[in-house]
TrEMBL record, chains A, B, C, D:
Source organism of this protein record: Hominenteromicrobium mulieris
Family: Belongs to the phosphofructokinase type A (PFKA) family. Mixed-substrate PFK group III subfamily.
Domain (Phosphofructokinase) ranges: 3-308
Database matches in SUPFAM superfamilies: Phosphofructokinase (SSF53784)
UniProt keyword Phosphoprotein present: no
Gene3D superfamilies from the UniProt entry: 3.40.50.450, Phosphofructokinase domain
EC numbers on record: 2.7.1.11
Name of the featured protein: ATP-dependent 6-phosphofructokinase
Cofactors, names only: Mg(2+)
Keyword Magnesium annotated: yes
Residues that hold Mg(2+) according to the record: 113
Amino acid sequence: MKRIGILTSGGDCQGLNASIRGVAKSLYEEFGNDVEIYGIKDGYKGLIFGEYKLMKPEDFSGILTLGGTILGTSRQPFKLMRVIDENSVDKVQNMKDNYKKMKLDCLVILGGNGTQKTANLLREEGLNVVSLPKTIDNDVWGTDMTFGFHSSVEIATNVLDCIHTTATSHGRIFCVEIMGHKVGWLPLYAGIAGGADVILLPEIPYDIDKIAKTLDNRIANGKKFSILAVAEGALSKEEAAMKKKDFKKARAEMKYPSIVYRLADELASRVDNEIRVCVPGHFQRGGSPCAYDRVLSTRFGAAAARLIREKNYGNMVGLVNGKIVPVPLSEVAGKLKTVPVDCEEILAAREIGISFGD
Amino acid sequence: MKRIGILTSGGDCQGLNASIRGVAKSLYEEFGNDVEIYGIKDGYKGLIFGEYKLMKPEDFSGILTLGGTILGTSRQPFKLMRVIDENSVDKVQNMKDNYKKMKLDCLVILGGNGTQKTANLLREEGLNVVSLPKTIDNDVWGTDMTFGFHSSVEIATNVLDCIHTTATSHGRIFCVEIMGHKVGWLPLYAGIAGGADVILLPEIPYDIDKIAKTLDNRIANGKKFSILAVAEGALSKEEAAMKKKDFKKARAEMKYPSIVYRLADELASRVDNEIRVCVPGHFQRGGSPCAYDRVLSTRFGAAAARLIREKNYGNMVGLVNGKIVPVPLSEVAGKLKTVPVDCEEILAAREIGISFGD
Amino acid sequence: MKRIGILTSGGDCQGLNASIRGVAKSLYEEFGNDVEIYGIKDGYKGLIFGEYKLMKPEDFSGILTLGGTILGTSRQPFKLMRVIDENSVDKVQNMKDNYKKMKLDCLVILGGNGTQKTANLLREEGLNVVSLPKTIDNDVWGTDMTFGFHSSVEIATNVLDCIHTTATSHGRIFCVEIMGHKVGWLPLYAGIAGGADVILLPEIPYDIDKIAKTLDNRIANGKKFSILAVAEGALSKEEAAMKKKDFKKARAEMKYPSIVYRLADELASRVDNEIRVCVPGHFQRGGSPCAYDRVLSTRFGAAAARLIREKNYGNMVGLVNGKIVPVPLSEVAGKLKTVPVDCEEILAAREIGISFGD
Amino acid sequence: MKRIGILTSGGDCQGLNASIRGVAKSLYEEFGNDVEIYGIKDGYKGLIFGEYKLMKPEDFSGILTLGGTILGTSRQPFKLMRVIDENSVDKVQNMKDNYKKMKLDCLVILGGNGTQKTANLLREEGLNVVSLPKTIDNDVWGTDMTFGFHSSVEIATNVLDCIHTTATSHGRIFCVEIMGHKVGWLPLYAGIAGGADVILLPEIPYDIDKIAKTLDNRIANGKKFSILAVAEGALSKEEAAMKKKDFKKARAEMKYPSIVYRLADELASRVDNEIRVCVPGHFQRGGSPCAYDRVLSTRFGAAAARLIREKNYGNMVGLVNGKIVPVPLSEVAGKLKTVPVDCEEILAAREIGISFGD
């Protein structure tokens, strides 16, 4: 009898259930009645506190299209290694104990960067783990693509599309805040797909006067409206030059609920047109996964089951040049896949006249 | 030769182009080459400053599905009657002059409440006008339905749907701001359709402690997440008791960019769960009209052409009990169709357990 | 203790689950622990064969957006009254027996015309019933609107939209078959919303030569493409003149799988352009209900619970002039709400130049 | 002064206008007033008959989201090289003459396999050409991805989603015909994404009895419904064994309008459940491109402009391992990128239990 645990951790995104289904269906196809799958509740939290249940095949039926995660999720349980919390709970030890209590052969872990780091810690602690790269940010190192990303791009693009019709009818400037605190793949793709005129990324600090000039030039060329796709983590050149500590402090004291409001204010004193703000927020991580993500999730899920079959533990499943590959968790942990400022997407965007505010 | 002018005024919304197309196609079908249609640019502004052009039949082709307005729009040109501006432009006189210059038989005006009021003014000044009720707010008096409303409800509902999957996965509280400054039809409908747990409307002042209690009760019943559909114009019972002047002042001094941020703050000190904010904003007025709005716009457009054929001027086209009727502009002007607090939709919402925070 | 049974019968459509949820949530809100809801499986079949189960409140959670029906459905169990089948099962007696076995206070029935007829039969047999009007065809007598209709219109319209871009790029003629065997509300609404050039309804027999002429005229006017929205039940003037028996025989012997293929063939010999066929089929009844249908379903569901509370049995819940009303099942049974050939929607469609092939 | 011609040829698909826009915007950014772009009407036909016009920058504005092609398209003008038609028109000579007449520096050609072949012919004839790979089939050799593909997958997946809710509610078998005559990428991806139980591809001939057995097994396991994603070009093992000539003859004489109807008939005599057919047809190629395709189209368009800048003619722009590369037309012409029967997507699909009918 194979015993497999499965958990989803970190911010939810589209494709989690599709991936879970891929893992489960493959395991049942391969092992039939000789496999038991344990669903662990609310991410690592469930592993720490022993909240899990034996799943049935029908639990994985009909979830391909479902947003969110049927297992629940929670934030990362610790930032530091092996934290013992205020109630003297040794989190890592608890996780190991519950792993043993369930008599698991392997633990399948779906999550983003923080989650991969913890997965690697558990590997180092001797647990068999296989992980999948989940995030709308597409910032997991070791894979060209994460599931959730393209679904999110689709939603953010749709927002930009709709804003477009209003912007053109009124001749207004719209600042749309698109998810991405540290990494700008999502605003970059949505910005290109949604026909943004300016895209602001965490990777390319902006110069507010250059942005104002870009908008003025558009007006001078008869284009009265403009749309800015602004990453949550967009920052000015001045901020980029700050020490990390000072930057964090400045942001914490910022009077605006998020950066797009500050940007709108900064622009209001520089351009004549009316400026409006749109903050779609978590809308971008919800709903049914797009077809692309469903196929990717299914492939990832089947590949995780394959690694379990082959007892090839300690890996994250990745997509590299269109092929599924196992990537050692030891290599993935602690890295971040940011947008190279000279990547092809940015070059193409610049070539068609999109400004990055730099 | 018939000469018909057409303009769209006020905030744009879905269905404007579908309505314009309905008017134009009907006129061309009826009068063939014996009609000239003048497109007036950017609402009343174009009429004041004489910016218009003779349209061709092909200009109205392929616009049924198009968001925004091909004619452009602008805000209401004056709040007071017959304003003479700082450049000594007599706006009303200019509009009358340009109407005569185009030798119009009738001016077709598409817009919301403010627009209808100005349309009525032009009628009083002796112009032949026919108007159509446009707005995502569905607050135009004299018609059961405006075009734009159901398209907007669809978008806001979609936002709530997506937020739902994140909310359930994380056990969080989400406050989603839905358009509606004075009137709550849109948040009411989207709230019901999107499965909101709490709906806050301008018409029903809220008690923050009651909302907090509702959320706590849900948690006590095992529902860790909650979704609040919050009208832009939601207000507390304390605010509702203020004098209008004091309320306006208080709002102008409010440190939050919009009400939903304040609400989130107020709740943060009262409930344990994490709270997130989503402000889809003008996203709700853009994009292609839904099928409902396209049919309604087509019917409204054809009806406007019929009124022109019958020289039955001075009316807004309305929908009453499923039938198209002409509604005298003199009756429409200056009124607002708010949500009755005991309307069937609210009663049904309460019956299935939705709270209105009161 | 209240005991309520609930079943869905006939073809599925969007909004069934939203309606079921509306009924259940209202009952639980009203009666709390003093109500038991029995879900009856696969429509009347479950009532005949005693397949049902006690539902829990959480069964009705999260189904607002879900297509299909969580209870399952089946076709009408009999065409004639009180049929005793080949296995000597007295269907009506069985239904009465199971109703008693469950000790029901009332049976809530969701379905279309056939379902309403059987609901009325059960009422005549002494059962307490309350019914809801479900169908994408909007052909239930006694209500202005059924749930499912607008969701379906949205889908069919989206098909026409997409076909449009291909049709215009290629200058082709497209015949799109839209659901509606006896009644044409769906093709009428989708046809108008989707910008069809010709709409063929069961209520308006067509003349193939007139259609060909319409298409030729369009080509002569520089419009190389045309789109036909064709009801499943579209029929020619010759067929309309046949005796019902002869018509049925002719159709049964027709070599085409459905009418749109015949139409395409008939046109192919009359016009030069290439002709393509599209049969979206049951696609039109599936997926998540649109916002309009969710609100309507919720209102209908709450109203059904209200009728139960008031012991006002024997009624279907209807929407008349925007208000919820109880409609005696005795009046509803056996009637059909067809499209009046002079209804406002058809008149408006003709006014903007849409042909009905007559 | 640079003079660039541009044409779209073959079946239309999503992303054509986005690509055209990418080419044009890049050219204008690079060359400003020193470039003239000539739009050639209806594909090669316009080049043969000299139908083209000088485009203006605003012609390329607002078309990013637009389905179809603003230039119009037509089928391949010849199957054989250098055909002289019944009116003694030497097509190739005409194309060369018009190229010279327009004084083009380069001709940008957007199209699928047939189009690339003709592009290569024109290259051999001495014209400067750069081409882009367009098709919903993703079957162009030399590129990992064509634009149109993912948009199409999204639509076909949505159809399968909606069919799902009906299929489950009724316990029926649905056969959905998905585009793909020779190559099955689209039904493969849509089938996986749409949760199909059986996928039939041109590349994997089916055994009808095996399909029937799969469906029976599902019923035996309590799954009363099944969904088949059937490529237009699906064929049986018997047909696959035929000589090409015999196969073509047999298909031409087939009494069904398309293969899915035959399959439904074949299954009807083998399984008990009701079977329904859905033929979404050209619906799959229309409408707005998805975000993925818009980004890809923009990158392709910018890359085409780059090749023109570098005078690197005679290439198709391709995407290989995530990078844009020029692929010599001489290598592309006449090849087809079919689905390898052991590709990762098929293996994953089999691993989660999807049958390919073989």
